[in-house]
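Hi all, long-time lurker, first post. I run a small reading group and we've been trying to get comfortable going from sequence to structure in the token notation. Rather than ask abstract questions, I figured I'd post a concrete chain and ask someone more experienced to write out its structure so we can walk through it together at our next meeting. Sequence below, copied exactly:
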Amino acid sequence: MTMEAIQKVTELENKGRENKAEVENRIRQAIAESERQGAARLEEARLEINKKYKNLRRQSEARAEMAAGRIAQKAENDSDLLRAEAKSRLDEAADYIVGRVVKS
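-- Answer (accepted) --
Happy to help. Here is the structure in token form:
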């Protein structure tokens, strides 16, 4: 081999090493960018899920509060009916007791 050929081979080897280093650097940058984008997407998804969870929780609490209100109202109505029924029977019970006392 001539000196010129050796220089050419050396230049090509150096150029190959430079190209390899450049490609490896690009790969590292692409990986780092992909990781940043992935982390950003994960954070967006986490925030969206958290937002949806809070919304569903508010809806559930509102439904539970409405149900509790309906139950309380029904209990109040039932209580009113029982009081009215007891009051109507109070006179009847008094008459019965007075009748028993008078007959004794």
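A couple of things your group might point at:
The chain has a mean pLDDT of 92.
DSSP finds one helix and no strands in the chain.
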